[in-house]
Amino acid sequence: ICEVDSSRDSETEESEEENPADMNMIWIFSRRFQLSVPKLTSRRRVVQELLSDLLQVSHSLFSDSFFPVLEPVIGVGSACEGWSPHKEEDVIYCMFVPLKPPPGHAFHLEPDTTGQMPQTSMRIRVEQVCTCTGKQPDQSRLCFLHHSAEELKRNQVTSLLHTLCTGPYLDGEKIALWFRTFVISAWSAVPQSRHYSMKVLPSCRSCKMRLMKDSGRSLFVEMVFSVQQGDSDIFLSSQPAGAQFPPSTTWLESYAVAEAKFFRQVAVQAPPHSCHLKCLRLCARLLEGSGISVYALKTTVMHLLTLIPLSEWQHKYLLMRVDDIMDYLRCCLEEKRLKHFFFGNEDMPEEISLPPDFQEAQPLNLFQHLVQDPAAQTKALKEFDEL
């Protein structure tokens, strides 16, 4: 579907790229849509340093507890990939906070059979495990399995099962409440509190913060709790991407970490001043108000980045690549089919680590709703053509 011709005649292409009218149009696009967003990188570093300091405080506070172990944050989403479609003041820096089980506990991922969500969902069963044996048994901790309830109650803090779980399952809402309470109490202990005032914003399953400088400039940060699937780049996320909220013990499969890793690899391998991020930002602005989601656009660009040689993404080719993106999207709308990037993709970069069943899986169709609703396809094509 949607074949892309990347073998254009080089002489013709060179003459097109040197056309002053094309270069002038690129300049107009860059100014009109503010395609350069260099502050994303510097502000992302500020956010990552802040969260690193916060997690350091959490480790000192909770080292003797049985709360989840908070791993180093991972930047995800468009702002951390370098191309946010939003205006500077509306950018949200999203960070995954991976959770590991505390001593004496283990996480087991179980398929969620409630069937309430269209995407893959799981529950994280928390199990108490023996700490008496092992390579380095911790003599200072009592074993949940082999010490009496009286001893445990008298000498040891409460198990994770009795704090942040509902039944035997890890509860995303309880974790978010616990972490938000911690952030409020620990804020004065981090160096950034001298430069920013902080407000925790309402959120059920994540921790959202607004950081404000004396100048009035704000930074918006969202921390989403996650659990890694094995050693892969696929995580379970506490925060649903859409408007529908499943039960608080349901965690949704997320590809955000794999996507961020993909864009980091492209940045390393692409030529200097590659235009792929500007293409994303420009097309996102062009598609505003249409029925095509930003995620469908990003999926399209990821496919094209594996189909068109990275040498063909130099800045002078910006208009050609925008044409390719829009043509690919138009073709997918006509075919009512846009393949998910991480399922059954033979062009998957080797650096991306996926669970074994992903390669064998049938590609998911992000435009499946158009198959089921012909009127929606007609409307989407009409809106697209009007662009």
UniProtKB/TrEMBL annotation:
Pfam families: Mab-21_C. Its main location: membrane. It is found in: Membrane. InterPro entries: ITPRIP-like, Mab-21_HhH/H2TH-like, MAB21L/cGLR. Residues 290-349 form the Mab-21-like HhH/H2TH-like domain. It is a single-pass type I membrane protein. One of its GO terms (cellular component) is membrane. Belongs to the ITPRIP family. This is IPIL1 protein. The lineage of its organism: Eukaryota, Metazoa, Chordata, Craniata, Vertebrata.
